[in-house]
Amino acid sequence: MFAAMKLSAIPALLRDVNGANVNVIRTAWDVLAAVPGGSRIFSRMVGRAAPYTATIGATVRSLGLGHAQVELRDRRGLRNHLRSVHAVALANLVELAGNIALAYSLPDDARFIVKRMTIDYLKKARGTLRAESRCPVPADSERCELEVTVDVFDRAGEVVATGILLSVVGPKTRPR
């Protein structure tokens, strides 16, 4: 049903991520990934749904059950006084990569929120960065806590940061 969804329907779905009884992230990615420039369109749509996330200008490159890969181009607006990517920009990248992997992997009737995030900065981050996340795939929307791990690599393939998101998953139904 949703595989044939028109591109024009996706923005309306993203505005109501928690209301629709459909996995909006999975639906949008599955439609857009097959379209030229679709990963950029998808990344912008995620940024419209979560405006702070958009501030780093990252692009989702790969997304599937239990994993995501996100790319961040190094640019002046993301740098600190040491001419490397700022720690908060790296944290934002870790959160984006982890959250979309988990969001894609959730059942249609589930949602989540990050409860805690830890990040270790291992070396200065310079150049284009690649964040790769891994997460469990929940079987249902029953309330649980899940750990999502994210590694950030520089162009040479060296790990510059690692993060762990502890997220609470539960049903979309809102308490009255």
Query: Can you count the beta strands?
Result: 6
Biggest sheet, open or closed, and with what strands and sense?
Answer: 6 strands, antiparallel
For the residues shown, what is the average pLDDT?
90
H and E order? HHHHEEHEEEE
Report the CATH C-level class. Alpha Beta
Q: Using only CA atoms, what is the Rg?
A: 16 Å
Question: Which architecture per CATH?
Answer: Roll
Output the CATH homologous superfamily. Hotdog Thioesterase
Count of all domains: 1
The end-to-end span amounts to: 31 Å
Shape by Cα distribution: globular
Poorly predicted runs of 5 or more residues:
1-5
Describe the structure.
With 176 residues, this protein is an alpha+beta fold. It has a single domain (2-171), classed as Thiol Ester Dehydrase, Chain A (Roll). The protein contains 5 helices and 6 strands. Strands 1-2-4-5-6-3 form a 6-stranded antiparallel β-sheet. A hairpin with a 2-residue loop joins strand 1 (59-64) and strand 2 (67-72). Helix 2 runs antiparallel to helix 3. The longest helix has 19 residues, at 87-105. It starts with 9 loop residues before the first helix and ends in a 5-residue tail after the last strand.
